[in-house]
Design a protein that fits this description.
Blueprint lengths: L2 H9 L7 H50 L3 E6 L21 E8 L2 E4 L8 E2 L4 E8 L4 E2 L3 E6 L8 E7 L3 E7 L7 E4 L9
Antiparallel strand pairs: 1-2, 1-7, 2-3, 2-4, 5-6, 5-8, 8-9, 9-10
Length: 194
């Protein structure tokens, strides 16, 4: 018995796929593509641009503080503004919401950084900066979070939770000694991650 005859006997017929088998495979692939494509196209659209802009600003803030020997503050202006019941006025740069800016201290006041590469970034409501987790365990859900970047090349550990399109939860984790933040799907915390 030849090898090809043995192969035919073992695995059955040698006719190939039937038309109905090919149609079923195509239907299954089409259904899978319809489920994945909308989510993927949304992420590859504005949201991806927003994540890139935000993580790029974090990196530039780190570099600028180190190169120029200045303390820079990455100001995360959360979506929910801070309400002050005392009636005291706050600085204009701290009245923003759902934005990120780089600030410096000048004459006892926070002011926008003068470099063009560190300008304020405003996000629309499809990209909500919901809350920030500090390494001390504090959770901030409204107002501003000021993350200092020191000339020695470090900042603070902070996690920023972002809600995309009112349904997708993302985390941007800023590490104390790394200039590149990490973007993760889901809301993470400072607990040990698996």
């Amino acid at each position: 018995m030849s090898l090809s005859a043995s192969f035919k006997n073992r695995f059955g017929r040698d006719d190939g796929f039937t038309l109905i088998e090919i149609v079923i495979v195509m239907v299954v692939i089409s259904i899978m593509a319809m489920m994945v494509a909308p989510r993927l196209s949304r992420f590859l659209g504005n949201e991806r641009k927003d994540f890139n802009m935000l993580t790029g600003l974090v990196t530039r803030t780190f570099d600028d503080a180190f190169i120029h020997g200045e303390v820079n503050y990455l100001a995360v202006h959360l979506h929910e503004p801070f309400t002050d019941d005392t009636g005291e006025e706050t600085e204009d740069v701290l009245q923003r919401n759902n934005a990120v800016s780089v600030l410096q201290r000048r004459d006892g006041q926070f002011v926008d950084h003068g470099r063009k590469s560190l300008q304020k970034m405003q996000f629309d409501d499809s990209f909500k900066l919901e809350e920030a987790l500090l390494s001390t365990g504090e959770k901030i859900t409204s107002g501003n979070v000021l993350i200092p970047y020191y000339p020695q090349g470090y900042s603070d550990n902070v996690i920023i939770h972002v809600l995309v399109n009112d349904e997708e939860q993302w985390s941007i984790r800023i590490f104390k000694h790394l200039k590149e933040p990490e973007v993760k799907y889901g809301y993470v915390s400072f607990e040990i991650e698996e």
